[in-house]
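Entry 14. Ran structure prediction on the chain below.
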Amino acid sequence: MRTDTAANWVANNPIVPMAEAARESDTGLQKIGDGSTDWRNLPYAPSKTGYSTLSVGDSYTKSDIGLGNVDNTRDIDKPNQLGARMRPFSTSPYPSSEITTLTWNNTTPYGSAWTTYAYAAGLSVNTPARFSMPGWAGTVYSGGTYAGVNNITGSSSDLTPYFVEFYTNAADFVLFFGAFAADFDWRVWANDMPLSDWQHSNPGNDGYGFNYLRIQFTGSKVRKITVAVPGAILFGGLIKPSADTTSVFWPAERRPMRVAVVGDSYITGGAGSPDPVYGGNIVTSTIAQQLSLLTGWEVLAMAEGGTGYMNPGGGSPREVYNSTSRNTALAALGALDAIIVWGTLNDFGYSTASLQAAATAYFSALATDRPTAPVIVVGPEVNPTYGVDATALAHDTALQTAANAAPNVRAYISQIQGTGTPWITGTVSGGSITNGNGQVFISGTDNLHPSRAGHEYLARRLTQALASVKV
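Output, structure tokens:
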């Protein structure tokens, strides 16, 4: 602390640096510099009893020294807009000049001269190693049998998509999978840049055989590899040529956010989501995985087709959102930065009052089970088959009321009320969608579920709404 007599301070009239204390030796009074005001115009430091001596050991509040408006909360603990935590995948393709081969088939690569790097050898199938299979209900290949499902409650109709992500310096390697079913979608990225478009090919073994995704680059260097596949195709591990003694594989880092999405078939996809453009079924490129691409987050799809807050989707093994099995599966995911609850038209057959009560109970259960995880609630979807009618509006309002009353819910996002809504428009006439964006974004096969373009569009609308949410 700089010290001088009161007279000298006045005579010299210095500018005291920001936050530096300066004391008058003969009066005991002191001033706190602001870096711009000279001594004569700088006020004395106040105390609880006026201008008096500040001594070591005295206790003062921030208001006592003129800092009453300063927020002492650490930046890391302040609510931040989710947009600041988004790191989207690139839409620019990985340089084709570096890619030699990208094939998926049931032909054993390298003959018999290959080395296996199974997840048990250091590459876990669960986070933080970034081999995410949320709610894993069975095992990977073991003596010729599979559990056949990768689902939160064990229904083979809901095959939860997942990402396999890791680093490697290998120029030639293979991911191998066991096929539970054929004709589902998959895609590959290197350094968050697409190596391929969404692929829709029959893996070749529609049952319990292995399938091989071979990736060859023109040279060896460190790359992050991401592969999106459905739960119908079970990750078995990694292999490389046995002659390659230098290449290694290691887990990828944690994504900026780890988020679970609870929902229905709009989130999980499946046989009810046919793709009229690419063929086959949409499972991997649904809203949840598209959200991951648009945000760069790890997004875990905790969804079952046909279900809702009230609707059990036909019964066991499918269950309502607030069921013991689904809550247990959610708890098994470990730490989450947020939970998104997707609304659904599957509940339209239930009363508004019962829906609001069920939603209130579910949000309360999430607060108990996940006290540190903020919840974002999305209102029910609509489509040309189920338009914005009185039921849809009443259900949307009921969910918003329940969300607004829940302390752990940070935001309510409506798909049908407010600026730019409804997200999906159009009507069905003569068995076809005749107008609105539903002609592009809803599959003409059933006029109910999104096309791949629709999943991407809905994920983009959701991303835009999430960007301003503070958690």
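Residues 266 and 287 are 7 Å apart (CA to CA). Will compare against last week's run tomorrow.
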